Amino acid sequence: MRVLLLHPGDPNQMYLMKSVCDNLYNVGIHTDMLDIHSKEFYSPRKNTFSFRRFDSLYSFLIRIPKVRVLVRKYINYTYLLCSWIVKHYDILDIQSLFCIEFVDIAKICHKKGIKIKTHIWGSDLFRESEDQKSWHDAIYKCSDSIQVATSNGAKYFSKVYPQYASRLVTIPYGLDQFDVLDSMLSSKTYLDDSFLSDQSAGRVFLTCGYNGRKEQRHMLILNAIENLPANIKQSIFLFLPMTYLLEDDYAIQIEDRLKELNIPYQIQKTRLPLNQNLTMRIRTDIVINIQTTDGLAASIQEHLYCGNVLIAGNWLPYDVFLDNGIYYYKSSLDELSNSIKNVVNSLNIYKERCQNNRFAIHSLTSWHVIAPKWKMMYDNIIKQTDIKS
Question: What is the pTM of this model?
């Protein structure tokens, strides 16, 4: 079986896509990845020649002045790409729906008879606009199988798109950072905190959100921190990971607000290498997540794996954590300041409650557990008859 992951070009998810390929290859699924924008092609089999030959030929032709016009008029790149996909793969796996270009690719590949699986990310589902719904629907219509990470996501999808509910399968991504974290936690190997401010030493380390989007609601977190007692403020360090999806104006607003608090802080705007990113998880004591909604974010899982206390909005769809015995502290917006104060004042007690989270998270989303489920999903897609209308 041969599978191609079609990726929308988010560089922050490239590690995840390559991890999917590697771990599925280990269970016998020959899986490659193509970034639709950069044309980066990855194969654990190191078999990149076929795509490179196809893409290089087209690129060469459109660079020839006398040929360029004819090529662009009579040779459609998307159609040629789909022909190449159908020739070399059994399943096209569309990873996220960020790109409207995926609509034409899905339609053409569908007509050519290839099996199509769509993987919906939380942002695809919970933040889609009315305009996006029309092209999402077009992709779902072509899909033999539609994958979501959580049961809450499946329920929401079934409510919005009941006509496609029978095609749903609920399987999350696996995480292979756990093996690296195990080494770092047990022997302190690979730990590198050189990127951290010296002011973080000796303080309770609070991580606020996990990216630079306004939907992380950093302002509300900072408002709650402003209302903390003076002794709490003097004991904490604020870390804001904003390495992607950060707008310049929003960054300025956040930094201005942080300066008003007179609390040591660090805004991380540049991407960190893996060992430093995981070092940040290990150094964290408390992580705060109060988005309006959230999926099964890898960042949050890594924090839980490290035994950090997660303070999360009590409206977030985290039933999967509760169902698997994973502890976190629920808070309303009105009580967020008190929640932070309670956890900081009794940090050792709450850390004790989080001790089982490491084992529970590993059992939930380790690739050792997840990869066989993905293999079964692909096997079922190949076996089923065409159900698309």
Answer: 0.84
